[in-house]
Amino acid sequence: MIEEKLESLGIKLPNPPTPAGSYVPAVKTSNLLFISGQIPMEDGKMIFTGKVSDDNLETAQKSARMCAINILAQIKKELGNLDKVSKIVRLSGFVNSVPEFSQQPKVINPASDLFFEIFGEKGKHSRIAVGVASLPLDAMTEIDAIIEFSG
């Protein structure tokens, strides 16, 4: 069912990115799945890099959406089926922004909106969106997630 929703939105899940450091992409415990921070990588290449400012807000929003798609790819890899998701519990969004930028929530909104659109009520989550001085590989955004699952 979720796969059909993705298809209707024109989203094809990529192979999930491999970690850029000494950690695992996901950890399951009880009925929670912790997804490590996902950056805007596609086919092993960083797509959105650099500092976020008022001048490139729309590009940064695309970066956040790509992070969300990579989170979905990691969930599918770990659970085998996105229909096992019973709740998107929390997203933590990090924005590689210039010091005077203060619209981090607007940058991360497209990621949240994608989860709302795909999962409906199950997609409603708590969230933080913060600006940071830098991110790994000069990524514009990084988002991690906590997911509740069943089965």
UniProtKB/TrEMBL annotation:
Pfam families in alphabetical order: YjgF_endoribonc (PF14588)
Residue stretches making up the Endoribonuclease L-PSP/chorismate mutase-like domain: 4-141
PANTHER family: ENDORIBONUCLEASE L-PSP_CHORISMATE MUTASE-LIKE DOMAIN-CONTAINING PROTEIN, ENDORIBONUCLEASE-RELATED
Designated name of the protein: Endoribonuclease L-PSP
Gene source species: Candidatus Nitrosopumilus salarius BD31
